[in-house]
Every structure is written in structure tokens, then in C-alpha cells.
Design a protein that fits this description.
Blueprint (H helix, E strand, L loop, with lengths): L1 E10 L2 E16 L3 E9 L5 E10 H6 L3 H11 L4 E4 L29
Antiparallel strand pairs: 1-2, 1-5, 2-3, 3-4
């Protein structure tokens, strides 16, 4: 997934802002073409737009590394890639010197089975 220069779009009657591009190859015909699916996402990784692009001809022949495919997809969608997506780091909070109180479960029912 890549970060992109934010773009505004219209979805369900609202202006939305895409900040992430996700893409993956869904069909590769060796020596011929590659079809990529893509999603444009907001900061919360909610899908705003989706679609498919097919790379053929000279573009397909030049595709030897993933970076080329990312750049080609961005160019087709008129997007500017600004970097690799880095997921936020979730910090674990450790509570020290905490008192654990155990409460027994008490029931007045007698199980005879």
C-alpha cells in the first residue's frame, strides 16, 4: 500500500479525501498483460473507490519490478505517490503494581447431575 498526495472525490453525496492507494495483480498473462485491482482509501482505510487497470504492450514489457507497476498505476489514475504506507504502531500499556481482587462466584443452587 502507498500513501498518495490527497485527492478529493465525490462518494454517496459527500466530498471524501483519498490518501492511500492499494493495488494488487489479479490476472497476469505471461508475455502479454497484467490486470491490477486497486482501491483508493481514506486515512481510516475505508474504501472510497475501486477499479481495475490492464497493463499491456510496452508498459507490460518494462514491468520487471513492483515499483514500476506502482508508478504505472498511479500515472493511469493521475495520482502522486508520496511514500510507502507504514501502519501506526500500537503501544502496549503495562500497568505495574496493580492490585488484583478476586471475587468468588457464589451460588445457592445445588447441581445434582
Amino acid at each position: 500500500m502507498k500513501t498518495i498526495q490527497p485527492i478529493q472525490s465525490w462518494a454517496n453525496g459527500q466530498v471524501v479525501e483519498a490518501t492511500l492507494l492499494n493495488a494488487w495483480a489479479v490476472n497476469v498473462v505471461l508475455n502479454t498483460s497484467a490486470t491490477f485491482s486497486y482501491n483508493l482509501l481514506n486515512d481510516a482505510q475505508e474504501r472510497l473507490q475501486q477499479g481495475e487497470l490492464t497493463m499491456t504492450g510496452e508498459a507490460y514489457t518494462k514491468w520487471t519490478q513492483d515499483a514500476y507497476a506502482w508508478d504505472w498505476i498511479a500515472q493511469q489514475l493521475n495520482l502522486t505517490i508520496t511514500g510507502d504506507y507504514v501502519p501506526p504502531v500500537v503501544e502496549t500499556i503495562v500497568v505495574q503494581n496493580a492490585t488484583v481482587v478476586e471475587t468468588p462466584i457464589v451460588s445457592d443452587k445445588i447441581i445434582t447431575e
